Queue: 2 jobs
Job 1
Amino acid sequence: MGLVKSSKILLSIVLVAAIGKEASATQHVVGGSQGWGESVDLNSWASSQTFKVGDQLVFKYSSGLHSVVELGSEAAYKNCDLGTALDSKNSGNDVVKLTKPGTRYFACGTLGHCGQGMKVKITTVAGNAPSTPASTPSSSGACFIQPLANPFVLAAAIFLATTDLFHLF
Ligand SMILES: [Cu+2]
C-alpha cells in the first residue's frame, strides 16, 4: 500500500515537472493565424510578441509557393539581398529555435515576395526560460530541481504530495 502511495507521489511530481517545462518555452506561429504570407502585416505581428531564448518560431505556408530564408544582416534585410542567406527552409512547416538573445532576419525566397514586404525581424531577449540541455533528456536530479525553482510548480508539487500523505496516515 505504502509503495503504491509513494509511486503516486512520484508520478505527481513527474507530471508537474513536465508541465513546468512545457510552460517555459513558447512556439510562435509567424504571422499568427494567417501564417507566413505576403499580405500579412508581419512586423505588427512581431511587435505584439515577446521572443525569449528557448522559444521557437514556426513558419506555416504552402510549400512551393513560399520559403524561409534567414538573412545575415540588417542591410541584407533592408535591401532584400537574398544572396547572403545563412539558411533556407521550404517544408511549409519550418521550425526555427531561438537559442540566444539578439536579432534575426527572415524573408521569403520567392522572387519579389521580400520586396512586397514578406520579411520579418525577430528580436530575442534573454528571459528566464531555462535552456533545455539536449544532452540530458531524462537524467534524475536536474529534471526535478529545475521546474521546482518555479514557485507555482513548487506549490503545486507540495500540494499534491501532502494530499497523498494525508491518505497515508
Ligand atoms: Cu513568399
Job 2
Amino acid sequence: MALSIGIVGLPNVGKSTLFTALTRKGGVATKHPFATTERNIGVVPVPDERLAALAEIVHPGRIMPATVEFVDVAGLVKGSSEGEGLGNQFLSNIRETDAIIEVVRYFSDPDVLHVTGEPDPPSDIEIIKTELILADLGTIERAIPRLEKDAKRDKAHAAKLEVVKRLQAWMDDGNTARSFTVTPEERGLLYDLHLLTMKPVLYVANVDEDQTGAVLEPLDGAVPLPICARLEAEIVEIDPQEAAEYLAMLGIEQLGLERLIQAAYALLGLHSFFTAGEMEVRAWTIPVGAKAPQAAGAIHSDFERGFIKAETVGYNDYIEYRGEAGSRAAGKLRQEGKEYVVQDGDVMHFKFNV
Ligand SMILES: Nc1nc2c(ncn2[C@@H]2O[C@H](COP(=O)(O)OP(=O)(O)OP(=O)(O)O)[C@@H](O)[C@H]2O)c(=O)[nH]1
Ligand SMILES: [Mg+2]
C-alpha cells in the first residue's frame, strides 16, 4: 500500500503550488483564494539512489520505486466546519490518508492575498487546528448513536463507547486526538473513526526563494520544513540540466520532494527494504522495527502467512560483493527467521509455503 498524505492549510498559501511541484501536474495553482474546487490526487515515486545502484548489478527488467500519494484539497477557513468556504466538504477526501502536510505561508509577496490579512504562522495554524478538531468532533457526534446501540447489545462495544466519549470530552476542550493519552488497544478502537487530528502532521513553511535553508522557530512543538513551493514548481517545468545549474546557483542541494519525503518517513517511522531479481528491482516501505514476516506481508499477505525464512543481504554488502551470488560466497547472505528486525536497505528474498 502506497503511503498517502493529505495537504491542508488556509486558502492561497500555496498548497496546489506545492502539489504541482511534487507531482508535476500543472494547472492547479492560481492567485485566487478558494481556487481548488476539486480534489487533486497525484502518485509520486519515492526518490532513492540505491535503486539505481542495485539495478546496475542486477540488470532487471524494470525498476519499481516505492510510491507516495498526495491529495490536495481546498483551503480551510475559520468556520469551515460550519460550512464556510469550501474546505470542509473536502475533508472527507483526506480521512483515509496516513499523514497530513500542513502548508503555512511564510512568503512575503504582497500580490498574493492572505485570507486574514498578514501571514502569522502561529495563529494561522491555530485556525486550521480548530477547524480540524471541529470536523473530528462532528465525526464523533455522528458515530455516538450507533456506538450506543451496539454497546447495549455487546460488552466489547461498551469499551469503545467509553473511550470515544472520553476523547470527545478531551477534544471539546480544544485538544487534538493526537494528544489524547490512550493505550495501544484503545487507539485500535478509535482507528476506524479516521480522525483527522489523530494523524501525524508535518508543517511545510512556504518561504521566499532565499529562505529555503532557514532554520525556523518550531510551530506547535515541531520545526517546519522550509520549501519555496513556487520555485520548486518552476523547476520541474524546465530541462533537468538547467534545473540542476539553477539550483546550484541558489545553493539548494536537494529538491523539496526529497526533503519532504525524508521528513515524512522520519515522522511516520518508516524505512525501506529491497527485492532484487531479474524481473525487477523494487523498494518497499515498512515501519521501522518491522520484523521479517511483516516485511514479507508488504509484498503479499500469502508471504506473511506462509513465511519460512528470509535470505537477507545488507545493502552495503550487496553493493560491495556485487549481488546475491557474490554476497553468498563472501558469507554475507544471512538466513533470517521470524524474529529478525528488518534494517533499512536490506535486500531480501523470502521463502514461504502456503
Ligand atoms: N511569492 C510566492 N508566491 C507563491 C508561492 N507559492 C505559491 N504562491 C502563489 O500563491 C498563490 C496561491 O497559490 P495556490 O497554490 O493556488 O494556493 P492554494 O493554497 O492551493 O489555494 P486554495 O486552493 O485557494 O486554497 C499563487 O498565485 C501562487 O503563485 C511562493 O513560494 N512564493
Ligand atoms: Mg489549491
